[in-house]
Specification:
Helices cover 48% and strands 5% of the residues. It has 427 residues and is mostly helical. It has a 4-stranded antiparallel β-sheet with strand order 3-4-5-8. Strands 1-2 form a two-stranded antiparallel sheet. It has a two-stranded antiparallel sheet with strand order 6-7. The longest helix has 24 residues. The chain starts with a helix and ends in a 9-residue tail after the last helix. The chain binds alpha-D-glucopyranose.
Length: 427
């Protein structure tokens, strides 16, 4: 009990440590800016003890929105020489604040719905509704390809170097005129935990391309060097569209607005089959141009529960994969298939367990009547935190912390689980 109490305090201290005045950075050194889905998870944690500050996290994120509706993956409020690629490398972007030119999985609507319960919550939901609606519209308009909301950059998926992206990256050439650069990530953390140099060259090639077309997002989707469907973005957006619809109905949005969201949901439900890999028996990433599937079970494969989509048979097969994976690791849920040859338990998205993915997966399983597996996934993260502290991600074999320490979303997920029924009154 006392260890739990002190972890609660350490979690709050971690978020305070990373507070930069209205927004929270993921961790000092490695990630010195406001990140999109990090801030949404952070708000979930802070809402358990300071609703006004949690709300500020959300409104500062929205300050980075582009006129076309996109909320970018990183908002650069200054130019920190310790970070690469910073604002100068992304070039002239379209928001009021310099930013990246790609987005991130849109968990915001789901978080807003969750933390704004009660009568006062209606006003808060109404305050951000238009911004979130515009962002979802942007995904459906600017990123749809082959009927599914696709992605143009592994960084947009939030799962940077997951081996799922290799089939798309293999089709790419590094731009011959790629300006030289020096990586900074490897100076802050163990390089063996980070993406390889070849991958980095390709990530920068996509940025170079986007900058070259003035970050025209429809062109980036149609003509860019990389185009894949990502189960993470697909399931997160489908869930978020459903939460957005519930909010629209509650706050009395016009019928046409609700109809528009219903149409997105119908399109999303239909697109779930596009990422069903029959041979694998699970959902996996898919290259849009070749139709080729990635061949491993990742930590977003089971988000069908979170999005409440997929057939009964698909869900049963996904559950069987979870049971197989559970026998291979001590800490569920690894980011990549432990039976795959390129599984690396400490290299970022090639194996480590990630707090925000455990959070969403466990929530979905619980909602869809799979409490046992939900508990396994929740307990595994809690055990790793108790053992090692608030790390960015964890070795699924040992529970050892990997990459960044004092990590905001890890502290936030912990707080949200420990204080599940306690949203700080003000909502
Ligand atoms: C890494 C992660 C991404 C996260 C960011 C900041 O790039 O892959 O998901 O948002 O770090 O924590």
């Amino acid at each position: 009990m006392s260890q739990k109490l002190s972890l609660q305090q350490t979690a709050i201290n971690t978020l305070n440590l990373n507070d930069r005045g209205g927004f929270t950075i993921p961790t000092a050194g490695l990630y010195p800016y406001q990140w999109n889905w990090d801030s949404a998870f952070v708000a979930l944690g802070i809402a358990t003890y300071d609703m006004d500050r949690a709300w500020r996290e959300i409104t500062t994120l929205i300050e980075g929105q582009w006129p076309d509706g996109m909320i970018p993956s990183i908002i650069f409020r200054d130019d920190n020489p310790d970070y690469f690629p910073g604002p100068s490398r992304w070039g002239k972007t379209h928001g009021a604040i310099p930013s990246t030119g790609v987005s991130q999985p849109p968990v915001l609507a789901t978080v807003v719905r969750q933390i704004t319960q009660g009568s006062k919550g209606i006003a808060r939901r109404a305050e951000v509704f238009d911004a979130i609606f515009a962002w979802h519209k942007w995904f459906h308009d600017a990123r749809t390809a082959s009927g599914i909301v696709a992605t143009v950059h592994p960084w947009e998926t939030g799962r940077d170097n997951c081996p799922e992206w290799n089939i798309g990256l293999d089709l790419m050439e590094v731009a011959p005129d790629l300006p030289p650069y020096t990586r900074m990530d490897n100076k802050h953390v163990n390089p063996h935990h980070r993406p390889t140099q070849e991958q980095y060259d390709k990530y920068l090639t996509i940025v170079h391309f986007g900058d070259g077309i003035g970050w025209d997002q429809r062109r980036l989707t149609n003509e860019g060097p990389f185009l894949m469907a990502d189960p993470n973005i697909h399931f997160v957006l489908l869930r978020a569209d459903k939460d957005l619809l519930a909010m629209a109905e509650e706050i009395g949005e016009p019928v046409e607005t609700c109809e528009q969201i219903r149409a997105w949901i119908a399109k999303g439900e239909a697109a779930t089959d596009y990422i069903w890999n029959e041979e694998l028996g699970a959902f996996s990433a898919r290259d849009i141009r070749t139709g080729k599937f990635s061949d491993g079970f990742s930590n977003c494969s089971a988000l069908c529960f979170y999005a409440d989509t997929g057939t009964k048979e698909q869900r049963a097969r996904v559950l069987a994969h979870l049971q197989r994976v559970e026998n291979k690791v001590s800490y569920m849920l690894p980011s990549w298939d432990p039976d795959a040859p390129d599984f690396e338990p400490q290299r970022y998205w090639c194996g480590p367990m990630w707090p925000q993915m455990n959070y969403m997966t466990a929530l979905g399983l619980e909602e869809q009547s799979e409490p046992e597996m939900a508990r396994t996934i929740r307990d595994a993260l809690n055990n790793a935190i108790e053992k090692s502290g608030f790390w960015e991600c964890f070795d699924p074999l040992t529970g050892e912390g990997c990459v960044g320490a004092n990590f905001s979303w890890t502290a936030a997920v912990w707080l949200s689980w420990q204080n599940a029924t306690k949203l700080s009154g003000a909502a």
